[in-house]
Amino acid sequence: MTPRQTNIALLWLTTLTLISGVGAFLIGTQAGHAVVLTHGVLGVGILVLSPWKSVIARRGLRRARHGSLLSLTLTFTILVALGTGILEVTGWADRLGPLTLMQAHVGSGVAAITLTWIHYRQRPVGTAPRDPSRRNLIRWTGLLSVSALIYVGTEGLWRLTSAPGGNRRFTGSHEILDVANVPATQWLNDRVQRLGTGHQVTITGTRYTAEEIAMGGDVVTATLDCTGGWYTTQEWSGTSLDRLIQETGGQSIVVRSVTGYWRRFPRSDAPRLLLATHAAGHPLRDGHGGPMRVVADGRRGYWWVKWVESVEVDDLPPWWQPPLPLA
């Protein structure tokens, strides 16, 4: 590829990689597998183009043009994003200093795409009449095909060698079998709450203690799939939200945490939502949302609201919320 074509390809690859990464966070069902595969193939595509881009970068640094520091910073963030992504997939490590690999991967990925577009604004790469040519279409198709072959080949290698990355879930998450080993993770600026057994939850105007919720006797086996890169399948017990809100109308169910965190579910999801007090027969620990949290099987971990304070039903549509929580 020419330098200009390489830059255009990298611009689109990094942009689509970010979009597919967000998509992988949003989808917790088997349908998300294609999004995760796409994310991986696009990441490999960036690696495949790196030799061509390194030649372009060296030429630019020799000319000491304005923006060289930005280019070096961009290169560093891309390397961190790719490196942490590879380590996360293999399962050979789970932290990068004080951060989890997923935190480092997401943070460096967002920084990389931001710097990429700033770099593009400083040194725009315009389109040319020959860009949509058959030759370029073959080049780009070939790039994605090679990337897909490399991705599929490495996935097969992990399985053949019984590497930790070989048994990932369709979301890319690694399994944790023992509930005692499940990490205490929070979304963005939330902190672990220590509410004690005296904490009560308000459900459509009625207050319940954790003990009353535990006596509901509803048990489900559900998979908590955290966007932090791990999942665990456990037996959760408590009371179904369908029994707690009963015949209350409305379009959506709003579950709020004592931290102010909240998620809105479709009213029709009530039979599949559990207000849980126990996991694997043990009371929920503080870091796991005790004394009460939502179990929402088929949804990613950020839907499983911890330290539940209230559950209300209203007439707003269930999509009336940010796709990903903002705090």
Described by strand count, sense and barrel closure, the largest sheet is: 6 strands, mixed
Q: Structural class of the secondary elements? A: alpha+beta
- The count of helical stretches stands at 7
What is the number of strand segments? Answer: 13
What radius of gyration results from the CA coordinates?
23 Å
Fraction of residues in helices?
A: 40-55%
Q: What is the CA–CA distance across the termini?
A: 43 Å
Q: What number of domains?
A: 2
Element order: H for helix, E for strand: HHHEEHHEEEHEEHEEEEEE
How confident is the prediction overall: mean pLDDT? 88
Tell me the overall shape: elongated
Q: Spans with pLDDT under 50 lasting ≥5 residues?
A: none
Percentage of residues in DSSP E strands = 15-25%
